[in-house]
Design goal:
Elements (H helix, E strand, L loop, with lengths): L10 H17 L9 E7 L6 E4 L4 E3 H5 L5 E6 L6 H16 L7 E6 L7 H10 L6 E5 L2 H10 L13 E5 L5 E7 L3 H8 L11
Parallel strand pairs: 4-5, 5-6
Antiparallel strand pairs: 1-8, 2-3, 2-6, 4-7, 7-8
């Protein structure tokens, strides 16, 4: 099947759309009768690459996204002024809504603009959204990022046309819940509650 031609919109229109959707995400809109997103169970294989986190440390992606605890994933770039802050706000708001019950949920945000998004930029971005130690921001080479995007069927032809996507995996399962669309904090919390969440034990 031939792909449909992509539509591009003026930056001013995208900025306005982003602002409107940011308000929706901050409110945690999850009660809409017509959700603007869909959730699909999909199987993905985590590629064998190592990326760099906001502290400049090399992190194997299999470790960042694998393991026995549930994990949430999205893609972003720090200079984005449209859907990226919406998505990051939704992730942050989701954690607040889950409270202690979601303490075991790890979050991973991967930059699709690695040339600009250095670890220092990622640290600043993480602080902007109040990210704690359970939320990791990753960058790498463009080749590595492209491999990851292909593995999660998240390629879009460029950072200014990237898709609003979230992914959730339950423990060591190889099945993910793929969320297509600008889901709000409440929406994401509802999806996350399908996973085996649990309060983090002291240690």
């Amino acid at each position: 099947m031939r792909s449909q031609p992509r539509r591009y919109f003026p930056a001013s229109v995208l900025a306005l759309l982003g602002a409107l959707l940011l308000g929706r995400a901050l409110l945690g809109a999850g009660d809409s009768q017509k959700p603007s997103f869909r959730v699909t169970p999909v199987r993905y294989e985590i590629p064998t690459v190592s990326l760099v986190d906001q502290d400049g440390k090399s992190v194997p992606l299999s470790r960042a996204l694998g393991g026995p605890e549930p994990v949430g994933l999205n893609f972003f770039f720090a200079s984005c002024r449209t859907i990226c802050p919406v998505m990051s706000s939704a992730f942050a708001g989701m954690r607040e809504k889950l409270g202690k019950d979601g303490a075991s949920l790890r979050l991973v945000s991967i930059s699709i603009d690695p040339e600009q998004d250095t670890p220092e930029v990622l640290r600043t971005y993480a602080k902007r959204f109040g990210a704690g130690r359970e939320w990791t921001f990753l960058t790498g080479t463009q080749e590595q990022i492209d491999v990851v995007l292909r593995s999660f069927l998240a390629e879009s032809g460029g950072k200014f046309n990237h898709q609003p996507l979230f992914f959730f995996r339950d423990g060591a399962a190889d099945q993910w819940l793929r969320v297509d669309g600008l889901a709000g904090a409440g929406d994401l919390a509802s999806v996350a509650r399908r996973l085996h969440l649990s309060p983090r034990t002291p240690g």
